[in-house]
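pls design
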């Protein structure tokens, strides 16, 4: 029996149907005037309910068998799906007590449900992780380039589809005058002069956000953003944090430093233009210190902010 053929045919069929279903549901939700957040949640809920209909999600023995499949994949350097099904999974299936399941439920039935379940899970994972891209399509009712595809190892924000969407709907139109106006809100003349020095000075908010950036890069290390030892050391040198109060009480959590470290750019300011200016100046400093990967991470943040500003300006017209 060709177990891999059974798996692939059901996986691919489910994936194609699911991808098409997501697209058509989003278009339907636009016609119903639903917000993207509502449409997003309803779409994920739809797939969760679809998956629940299968025995592999309801029968404990089959749930355990799926876990055996997952853990067995790492046993092989190639052809892992085929070999895991043929060896560990088939052997475990033969030992299962399936008294509560229809007697027509065979090993082929399990493989079919496994493939369907995995396809649904992958569609949901990508739709959730790439939500910003699908939000852009949704808000502009533009689905010509719609696809549910994993762009690993590159970040989806570096994909051609995403950059084309940004250029189409959010061209950067901010004038120099507006930029300088926002720039001056949070930066004094002294800090502007610092940019001309070989080693720029960082204010407390910048230090806190640098630490926040390090934390996020490490947490998201599976994406294209990486952090090497040199950059990590340089940032620790910049921050030079000494706060023994954190060992005695929780009062340190009330400081702006900790709020930015834990909450990110929204804790710098609630105004998106000020956030944008803050990131732009920080990028200029990290570039000066050749913190390439941190600069790349900050640049992606800047792209998001500028796109949001452009979208807000477009709405205001």
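designed seq:
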């Amino acid at each position: 029996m060709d177990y891999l053929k059974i798996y692939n045919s059901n996986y691919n069929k489910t994936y194609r149907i699911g991808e098409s279903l997501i697209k058509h549901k989003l278009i339907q939700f636009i016609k119903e005037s639903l917000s993207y957040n509502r449409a997003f949640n309803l779409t994920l809920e739809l797939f969760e309910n679809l998956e629940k209909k299968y025995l592999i999600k309801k029968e404990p023995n089959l749930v355990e068998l799926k876990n055996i499949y997952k853990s067995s994949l790492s046993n092989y350097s190639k052809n892992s799906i085929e070999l895991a099904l043929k060896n560990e999974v088939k052997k475990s299936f033969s030992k299962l007590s399936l008294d509560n399941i229809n007697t027509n439920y065979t090993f082929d039935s399990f493989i079919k449900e496994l493939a369907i379940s995995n396809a649904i899970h992958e569609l949901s994972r990508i739709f959730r992780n790439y939500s910003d891209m699908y939000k852009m399509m949704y808000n502009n009712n533009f689905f010509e380039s719609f696809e549910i595809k994993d762009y690993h190892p590159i970040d989806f924000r570096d994909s051609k589809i995403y950059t084309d969407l940004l250029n189409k709907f959010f061209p950067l139109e901010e004038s120099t005058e507006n930029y300088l106006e926002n720039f001056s809100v949070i930066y004094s003349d002294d800090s502007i002069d610092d940019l001309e020095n070989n080693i720029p000075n960082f204010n407390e908010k910048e230090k806190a956000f640098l630490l926040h950036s390090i934390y996020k890069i490490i947490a998201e290390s599976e994406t294209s953003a990486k952090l090497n030892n040199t950059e990590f050391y340089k940032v620790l040198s910049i921050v030079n944090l000494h706060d023994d109060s954190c060992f005695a009480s929780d009062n340190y959590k009330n400081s702006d430093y900790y709020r930015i470290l834990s909450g990110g750019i929204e804790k710098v300011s609630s105004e998106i233009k000020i956030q944008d200016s803050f990131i732009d100046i920080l990028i200029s400093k990290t570039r000066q210190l050749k913190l390439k990967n941190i600069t790349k991470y900050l640049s992606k943040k800047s792209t998001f902010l500028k796109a949001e500003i452009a979208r807000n300006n477009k709405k205001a017209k």
